[in-house]
Amino acid sequence: MKKNSRASMSDAQKFSLVRREAIYTGLALCGLIIFWLVAGFGTASLDVKIFHLPLWAVLGTVGVWLVAIFISAILSKILFKDIDLGGDEND
User: Fold this and answer.
1) How does pLDDT run across 45-88, given as a tens digit for each residue?
2) In sequence order, what are the residues at sequence separation of 6 or more whose Cβ sits closer than 8 angstroms to the Cβ of residue 7?
3) Helix, strand, or coil here: 19?
4) What is the pLDDT of residues 8-22, one digit of tens each?
5) Burial of 14: CB neighbours in 10 Å, binned 0-12, 13-18, 19+
């Protein structure tokens, strides 16, 4: 089995990487909650309809899902790294 450069990371480096990913995921969650508040409650006073639904209902539901998918794609493509965390030494 081929070993890559990521396999030679120390436990401290792995922990640091996992911690960084967790922090950015938490920040992404905070950003998503802020978007949900602004999109849902912030647009409630507008009289805009999309497919006969109020704008706040569309942005507060479908909009949040789309933003969450977008954030997840960015995090997985740019930030997250595929590393071997160990545990199965029989390979």
Assistant:
1) 888 999 999 999 999 999 999 999 999 999 999 988 887 767 66
2) 84
3) helix
4) 778 888 888 889 999
5) middle
Distance CA(78)–CA(91), nearest Å, equals 29
Return the domain boundaries, the chain: 12-79
Looking only at the bridges linking them, the beta strands covering 49-50 and 53-54 are antiparallel
- Ramachandran assignment for 54, one of left (phi > 0), alpha (psi -120 to 50 degrees), beta (any other): beta
Query: Considering only CA atoms, which of 42, 70, 40, 69 is closest in space to residue 53?
Result: 40
Closest C-alpha to 21, from 87, 65, 77: 77
Closest residue by Cα to residue 48 from 35, 36, 57, 60 = 57
Give the DSSP H or E segment for 71: helix 64-74
Looking at the DSSP bridge assignments, the partners of residue 54 are: 49
